[in-house]
Amino acid sequence: MARRFLKMHGLGNDFVVIDARHDPLSLTAAQARAIGDRRTGVGFDQLIVLERDAGADVFMRILNPDGSESGACGNATRCVASLVAGGLGKDDLTIRTISGLLGATVHANGLVTVDMGPARLGWQDIPLSREEDTLHLSAAAGPLADAVGVNMGNPHAVFFVPDAEAVDLPTHGPVLEHHPLFPQRCNIEVATVLSPTLVRMRVWERGAGITRACGSGACAVGVAAIRRGLAERALTVRLDGGDLHIAWREDGHVLMTGPVATSFEGVLHPSLLDERVPA
Ligand SMILES: N[C@H](CCC[C@H](N)C(=O)O)C(=O)O
């Protein structure tokens, strides 16, 4: 069966969004990988499937290009909020993920704020494979060491470095993503504090590799910088694709504000959804 989709992005972190609220769709990991191939499929950093939810305006399922599922995607949550708000004719929304219920507000200027929920900081929350102080993780690769662990609905390890531009992420990112300290693998951020209100970051995403932006990663970087005493509770995080504004409230919730964009709409050819498609 052919399926309509939207291509959306937040700061160049791009998504195939399939609205399955009226026509349920259950995708296998192999189907997600097929759609995600940038030459033989459509290509995406994350595949988002919208479903109906009895207790929220919408449920969003988040799949990586390797077919794995994630509990959070900050940039896609902004895109989904903007899309669903338009359809429902309201600016304040609730969005459920497998990690919980999020609140979002679409502002008159088009920017969207998502309450990404509380940052979870215990070693079991990240999760780690053994008890460790999440302010100083033991996982290391090349020059990268002494990370801060943060769970934003998905796992993150933030490495502060003198110059984030100089880090060889294609080499060290996958080693750290698969480090034995992280039983569910990990999203890896390298960050340089430019001032107490401005942090530069680059990301190696679990299941996706280098992307131009990662919203949950920007939240994790903000929280990590604040925990280390390097930043104020409201700051700008500068990603390859642009800036996100992050605020860590006293109650633990992390607010993320940034832009959304729609680039095109299309129809998936039925062969991409064929179960026999090679993985
Ligand atoms: N790009 C997303 C994160 C995707 C997370 C995914 N790579 C994982 O946790 O496996 C964001 O804006 O937050």
Question: What is the gist of this entry?
Answer:
Belongs to the diaminopimelate epimerase family. This protein is an alpha+beta fold and 279 residues long.
What is the number of beta strands?
Answer: 17
What is the CATH topology descriptor of the largest domain? Diaminopimelate Epimerase, Chain A, domain 1
Order of helices and strands: EEHEEEHEEEEEHEEEHEEEE
Instruction: Indicate the low-confidence ranges by residue numbers.
Output: none
CATH architecture annotation of the largest domain: Roll
Tell me the strand percentage band: 35-45%
List each distinct ligand once. 2,6-diaminopimelic acid
Number of domains: 2
Calculate the terminal CA-CA distance, rounded to whole Å.
19 Å
The overall average pLDDT, rounded, is: 96
What's the CATH first level of the largest domain? Alpha Beta
- According to CATH, the homologous superfamily of the largest domain is Diaminopimelate Epimerase, Chain A, domain 1
The global form is: globular
Structural class: alpha+beta
Fraction in helix = 10-25%
